[in-house]
Design a protein that fits this description.
By secondary structure, the protein is an alpha/beta fold. The protein is built from eleven helices and 19 strands. It has one domain.
């Protein structure tokens, strides 16, 4: 297992902040345009490796056509056209839409949302994770831009209890990789960025299995005063991924705010983000920004909520009722028992947990674990990881100059609403969103979901970042480009008919919706 941890402290160059956004091209963080294509039918192709169903003159594999309709491939191609990529060559053999983002010989990371192999309550998966047909379409245009030289790595760090092999099987990623190997002699790497997988039963960890992890290791990055946790007002009793909350607190205390990030990711020239369009119980929505949680190698470095009720300087619960205070203490005792038991006492622990749900209520109906609009913790983690994504160099130092080249493509063909991210209801939308700035893409996505971005902390607060800026323009500059006959529209001009109102997680209901949709 890779244990190559490199430690890095923040290295800030502030001599000329304006240089941090000196344009490398028209297609970088300064670009506020977001393209949206809507498919004729909200369906995915079913047969990997998901060839296009139409001949396109720029194709590297012109004779490989699918007999089933591939609406996804056509939508991705249309979005690249709408963004004006290599405009003069569109429709010609020479069209290379990603050529200004991906260069010959580059190291390119494709980052899907592979959170879990299926819905928590059934075997459905198409509205839980990024579909393989989206990955295939993106790979074709990345390969075209690389001109046969360079590296493509598909990588993610799923939920700790997820089965990566099953995820790959369902998404069809292996047939895609095999196709490239056979037809192009090109190797596409596939990485599970986790160091550990958990086997759970009844939400109790039965076994911790060591994984190979990132072959390049991980880099420890301390954002210190540049973290969104600097000056944090709550107690700092952070909860991360499991019972060992002390580890999370240690990584975020005494002026230290550090993350353990994939070195393969840090070494990339280009990151292409392929999130899923879904609601999220802790963050409101999961889109481009939230998808970067998967670049971290140890989820106990990631504060998810702050333990305690509001009166106890926590955001674990939505009120300071006595019942919530008692539950908080009950959970601490249970987790301390599990920690001390060292893997023993699992049967008793499961019984105790079930008894707790009978007393305090099921998580499907009860707000706990920071699953509500008042979570003041997770958005800080999300923004910190995105700062690292854009501004860290290969050694893990943070630099204001030359942010990474980046593209976000949101899979909203079949999206997820309600109890996201792992137990949502399907929402057939038939859309792909594409853009260069993750905040702009996410604001458009949230608006189309029927949500007010000013009520979603990671979106609202992204505009307040002082140094490692993620968005160098104001919301009114965001422009939605479509091919449905309407003219390009600014964010506040998006038509009501474009909105596909999503049901929020119940902890966010009546606190996130656009004012005109609160009765939905």
């Amino acid at each position: 297992m890779a244990k190559d941890y490199k430690e890095s402290t923040i290295c800030v160059y502030v001599d000329n902040l304006a240089k941090g956004f000196k344009k490398m091209s028209r297609f970088d963080l300064n670009n506020s345009q977001v393209a949206m294509s809507k498919t004729q039918k909200a369906i995915y192709p079913s047969h990997p490796p998901f060839h296009p169903s139409e001949h396109y003159p720029e194709s590297s594999f012109p004779i490989q056509l699918s007999t089933e309709k591939n609406y996804v491939y056509a939508a991705l191609r249309e979005n690249l056209r709408l963004l004006g990529l290599d405009r003069r060559n569109y429709g010609k053999r020479a069209w290379n839409p990603l050529g200004e983002i991906v260069r010959k010989g580059d190291n390119v990371i494709i980052k899907p949302n592979f959170i879990r192999q299926s819905h928590l309550l059934n075997e459905d998966w198409e509205y839980v994770i990024t579909h393989g047909s989206v990955i295939r379409a993106v790979l074709d245009y990345v390969y075209l831009a690389l001109e046969g030289e360079g590296k493509i790595i598909v990588a993610d760090g799923p939920q700790t209890d997820s089965d990566f092999s099953s995820i790959c099987l369902k998404t069809g990623i292996h047939p895609i990789i095999d196709f490239y190997r056979k037809e192009a002699g090109f190797k596409i790497e596939l990485l599970d960025l986790r160091q550990e997988r958990w086997i759970q039963k009844g939400n109790i960890i039965e076994e911790r299995i060591k994984l190979k992890g990132d072959p390049k290791g991980y880099t420890k990055i301390n954002l210190a005063e540049e973290s969104e946790f600097a000056g944090y007002g709550l107690s700092g009793k952070f909860y991360g991924a499991d019972y060992f909350s002390e580890q999370t607190i240690w990584h975020h205390s005494n002026g230290r705010h550090e993350y353990l990030v994939s070195s393969t990711l840090l070494d990339a020239d280009v990151v292409i983000n392929l999130p899923k369009l879904k609601t999220h119980k802790k963050a409101g929505v999961t889109l481009s920004l939230k998808n970067m949680v998967g670049i971290n190698g140890d989820k106990n470095y990631l504060p998810h909520f702050t333990e305690g009720t509001p009166s106890e300087e926590g955001d674990q619960f939505d009120s300071s009722a006595l019942k919530n205070k008692l539950e908080g203490k009950y959970r601490k005792i249970l987790y301390r028992f599990l920690e001390c038991a060292g893997g023993r006492g699992k049967v008793l622990a499961r019984g105790t947990r079930r008894a707790g749900e009978l007393i305090f209520g099921s998580t499907k109906k009860t707000i706990r674990s920071g699953n509500w609009y008042g979570n003041d913790t997770i958005w800080r983690t999300i923004l910190d990881l995105n700062k690292i994504l854009f501004y860290s160099d290969a050694s893990g130092h943070m630099r204001l100059l030359s942010p990474k080249r980046y593209l976000s493509i949101v899979d909203g063909i079949i999206a997820g609403e309600g109890d996201g991210p792992m137990a949502p209801d399907p929402k057939a939308c038939g859309i792909l969103l594409t853009g260069f700035n993750p905040v702009a893409v996410d604001i458009v996505g949230a608006t189309l979901m029927g949500f007010d971005f000013n009520k979603i902390p990671q979106l609202k607060n992204a505009f307040q970042i002082k140094n490692f800026k993620l968005v160098p323009f104001q919301p009114e500059k965001i422009e939605l480009i479509t091919s449905n006959g309407n003219s390009n529209r600014r964010l506040f001009e998006i038509d009501h008919q474009d909105i596909l109102p999503f049901k929020p997680h119940f902890g966010w209901k009546d606190h996130i919706e656009l004012d005109s949709l609160k009765t939905y």
